[in-house]
Amino acid sequence: MTVNAPATSTRSEALFARAKAVTPGGVNSPVRAFRSVGGTPRFIAHADGAYLTDADGARYVDYIGSWGPMILGHNHPAVRAAVAEALLGGTSFGAPSEREVLLAELVTRLTGAERVRFVSSGTEATMSALRLARGVTGRKFILKFRGNYHGHADGLLVEAGSGLMTTSGELGAAAPSSAGVPEEYAALTLVSEYNDPAALDSLMAERGHEIAAVIFEPVVGNAGVLIPTPEFLAALHRVRDSGTLLIADEVMTGFRLSLNGATGLLGLEPDLRCWGKIIGGGLPVGAYGGRAELMEYVSPSGPVYQAGTLSGNPLAMAAGLATLGALEANPGIYQQLDRYTGQLAAGLRSAADRAGQPLSINRVGSMLTAFHQGVPDGSIATYQQAAASDTAAFAHFFQSVLAQGIYWAPSQFESIFVSAAHGDLELERTLAAAEQAYQTGGTL
Ligand code: PMP
């Protein structure tokens, strides 16, 4: 089995040219276009275990795992068999079916949520949880943190326009981070700084009575990995003193950091949680859940409307059941993921040190970001600190390891995801490629 990436990727280039003629930017989700690292995105022909194979036949050790879902590795036999069996029974009913009950029973058992509602993406999960929070509280405002991503619903596409940002307790309206989001929508979203408990406390003291929910990534993956401090977690739990609901967005961390996600790992007590990615085992599923008294506000039990033609889709439920079932049956997977990713972190650290390349690694379990900047490991805690990374040095690293058959996340500000299919051989290949990348490092 060889891992090789040809110097030219002619089929990917041809497919990308055709794609650009029919799809904006040639991709169906922006980060896939390699804009921040340059070069041609690889078009993937198939995936197996820890590997992706592109349209030119090059194989890569995959550190994206479809951006999180593929925790068991690609094309896992149990997931494939479950989807194949479901397929024989028809692909969509638009009526309730047993697999939805089974998956909801499994999710409630693993997470302690009393009720769960399935949707088809993480975006729908967060959007619906926020509507529910507004419906329950009768309040208009929501609060999110700079550099956290919760999907692309209008009110969540607000970010760090520096002059408009709320920092260190100062209040400010957040700017839309996308064209097409009216300022009036963005004005209902307040933004505070991640890992700044004083800023959160003072914003809550002033506006808490108007804020329906605070939504947060319990371990951030979308600014690169950022780890919450205990003080910040304590401040998050204090928001409930104002009657504000605390929503943990576990779309990325759910079933990845433990069987009960970051909530289990960090001892969180959120009112509502959102899931995606692993819960669907690589098929489109999202979910939100929490205590029955809150969730029973959702239609048809209550007045908060939310629906979906393909919600609870039998193939997607089958993939989720097989994936979560395998994790529950083999909880040792979490130790295995932690060990692999720990060795990866240690190997990257020493390779960068040998080459004299500045690097700062943040890691929780199988989520890791190696920021290209010379501050101690674990010290990058805010979006602003993450943003100080040398993106040109990262681009060099990315292209160098890609050419050596390692598919890293194509942005400095993303987590990588390790799967249970990654083993010693993949670790060795990855560290050999990283050694070369750092030795030839600097900028492109
Ligand atoms: N929340 C978080 C924390 C995410 O990481 C993502 C996607 N990366 C989403 C929400 C949105 O999920 P989806 O892309 O499935 O809509």
SSE layout and pairing:
Blueprint: H1 10-22, E1 44-48, E2 51-54, E3 59-62, H2 77-88, H3 98-111, E4 115-119, H4 122-137, E5 141-145, E6 158-159, E7 175-176, H5 183-186, E8 189-192, H6 197-207, E9 211-216, H7 230-238, E10 245-249, H8 261-266, E11 272-275, E12 286-290, H9 292-295, H10 314-329, H11 332-355, E13 360-364, E14 367-371, H12 383-387, H13 391-403, E15 406-407, E16 416-417, H14 424-439
Parallel strand pairs: 3-15, 5-8, 5-9, 9-10, 10-11
Antiparallel strand pairs: 1-2, 2-3, 4-12, 6-7, 11-12, 13-14, 14-16
Helix pairs in contact: 2-10, 3-10, 6-7, 11-14, 13-14
The structure holds 4'-deoxy-4'-aminopyridoxal-5'-phosphate.
Question: Please, could you describe this protein's structure?
Answer:
The protein is an alpha/beta fold and 444 residues long. The protein folds into 2 domains: 10-75 and 331-439, Aspartate Aminotransferase, domain 1 (Alpha-Beta Complex), CATH 3.90.1150.10; 78-329, Type I PLP-dependent aspartate aminotransferase-like (Major domain) (Aspartate Aminotransferase, domain 2, 3-Layer(aba) Sandwich), CATH 3.40.640.10. A 7-stranded mixed β-sheet has the order 4-12-11-10-9-5-8, with helices on both faces. Strands 1-2-3-15 form a 4-stranded mixed β-sheet. Helix 8 (261-266) links the parallel strand 10 and strand 11 (272-275). Helix 3 (98-111) packs parallel to helix 10 (314-329), helix 11 (332-355) packs parallel to helix 14 and helix 13 packs across helix 14. It is built from 14 helices and 16 strands. 50% of the residues are buried. It has helices at 10-22, 77-88, 98-111, 122-137, 183-186, 197-207, 230-238, 261-266, 292-295, 314-329, 332-355, 383-387, 391-403, 424-439; strands spanning 44-48, 51-54, 59-62, 115-119, 141-145, 158-159, 175-176, 189-192, 211-216, 245-249, 272-275, 286-290, 360-364, 367-371, 406-407, 416-417. Bound molecules: 4'-deoxy-4'-aminopyridoxal-5'-phosphate. The site of 4'-deoxy-4'-aminopyridoxal-5'-phosphate has 16 residues, from helix 4.
